[in-house]
Design brief:
With 391 residues, the protein is of the alpha/beta class. It has helices at residues 14-27, 39-43, 47-57, 67-75, 93-98, 108-115, 143-153, 176-194, 207-212, 351-358, 362-367, and strands spanning 9-13, 33-37, 61-64, 82-84, 101-105, 124-129, 158-164, 201-203, 220-223, 247-252, 255-259, 264-265, 271-272, 277-282, 299-302, 305-310, 318-321, 337-344, 347-349, 375-379, 382-387. The protein has 2 domains: 31-227, Alpha-Beta Barrel (TIM Barrel), CATH 3.20.20.10; 247-387, Lyase, Ornithine Decarboxylase, Chain A, domain 1 (Beta Barrel). Bound molecules: pyridoxal-5'-phosphate (PLP). Its EC number is 5.1.1.1.
Length: 391
């Protein structure tokens, strides 16, 4: 539904998304396919809105974590190939085939369940997952992977389209381990090629690979965090590709007050005023994904000025200091815009700033944004569409 009635919203810049997609398209080797990783609600940005824009841009593939995420995209009208990167239980195989959804394959029992599917003239497309050193999903390189590939190729219900692996340290400065993973995966790719097996697509790249070592990506870049304008780590070569953050988290002042001296602010009165202080109440809290663990650490932007969050972040609300923003003497008014993440004037609070305060990574910061925060898709300064699952 295209409506929302709260001040808190995530603005999603479709212009920035295009800048980032274009930057990666230009940076990767000619002919390399581009997958938009829209799992986890497009890293919190809104899966359908992001997938629609990525499809219009011309990405070649969508990537999701599990089957329900893929079905959501199909039901929203996404027609590009979709790969489920994670585990699909046997109960999902027929549904995946019906929806033309490609799945990752890495277990014999699932392979045999596919072989037992009633034939209906359609094949279930699969990409076989190789564990080259991530230690997560996939067959081990060598005989284990080779036997599995050979068996999968005999199953009439399956079309083995691809083979893929995932790097665990591609975002680190030292590329020795990634090179080792690349070589292991190459061993399996060579086996397929030397035996002329009918598998055409090999892929190994994530954002970090796309930035630092695109030639180790094989045939497709599975682009996640970089598409959202964030770097996978501080160690990748950020000068290689200029990215623009796609998400800004904004709200507005719900109430202002001048609190007396020694006035407790929020649960536990962990912050107490040391004199008369101007306080602003914001309608955003930990239930929106603004973690309570940021209490006493987070900041917000008001009138282009950084102000601290005061005291404990509540479920739906939190308080900020208004005095730093009122140095000009003009009091902040109710309903004035406040930026929690993003730019206001010359100041910016990044997902990495928030991640550092939480001891996590930017990926988790955007993924944490709750469903109840409307996603407002903006192009050229104008609202393009709104996603609000509540209404
Ligand atoms: C299998 C796989 N491929 C690609 C990606 C995209 O990675 P990134 O967001 O670092 O580009 C992920 C993300 O976790 C993943 O799990």
């Amino acid at each position: 539904m295209e409506a929302y009635y709260r001040a808190t919203r995530a603005e999603i810049s479709l212009d920035a998304l295009r800048v980032n997609l274009t930057a990666f398209r230009q940076a990767i080797p000619e002919g390399m396919l581009l997958m938009a990783s829209v799992k986890a609600n497009a890293y919190g940005h809104g899966a359908v809105g992001i997938a629609r824009e990525a499809e219009a841009f011309g990405v070649d593939y969508m990537g999701v974590a599990f089957l329900d995420e893929a079905i959501q995209l199909r039901q929203a009208g996404i027609t590009k190939p979709i790969l489920v990167l994670g585990y699909v239980p046997a109960a999902g195989l027929a549904v995946a085939r019906d929806y033309d959804i490609t799945i990752a394959l890495f277990r014999y029992d699932i392979l045999e369940a596919a072989a037992a599917l009633p034939e209906n003239g359609k094949q279930l497309a699969v990409h076989i997952k190789i564990d080259s050193g991530m230690g997560r999903l996939g067959m081990l390189p060598g005989l284990e992977a080779e036997r599995f590939i050979e068996r999968a190729l005999t199953v009439k219900q399956l079309r083995v389209e691809g083979l893929f692996t995932h790097y665990s340290k591609a975002d680190e400065l030292d590329k020795a381990y990634t090179e080792q993973q690349y070589e292991r995966f190459n061993g399996v790719v060579d086996y397929v090629r030397n035996n002329a097996l009918p598998i055409s697509l090999f892929h190994a790249a994530n954002s970090a690979t796309g930035i630092d070592t695109p030639n180790w990506g094989h045939g497709m870049l599975r682009l996640g965090i970089g598409m959202y304008g964030l770097y996978p780590s501080a160690q990748v070569n950020q000068k290689e590709i200029a990215l623009e953050p796609v998400m800004s988290l904004k709200t507005a002042v719900a109430m202002t007050k001048t609190a007396p001296e020694h006035w407790g602010i929020s649960y536990g009165a962990r912050y107490v005023t040391s004199g008369q202080e101007r306080i602003g109440t914001l309608p955003i809290g930990y239930a929106d994904g603004f973690s309570r663990m940021l209490s006493g650490k987070a900041e917000a932007l008001v009138r282009g000025t950084r102000v601290p969050i005061l005291g404990t972040i509540c479920m739906d609300q939190c308080m900020i200091a208004l005095d730093p923003a009122e140095q000009g003497g003009v009091q902040v008014q109710a309903d004035e815009e406040v930026v929690i993440m993003g730019r206001q004037g010359d100041e910016v609070i990044t997902a990495d700033d928030i991640a550092d305060k939480l001891g996590t990574i930017n990926y988790e910061v955007t993924c944490m944004l709750a469903a109840r925060v409307p996603r407002v898709f903006v192009r050229n300064g104008a609202v393009q569409s709104i996603s609000n699952p509540l209404l």
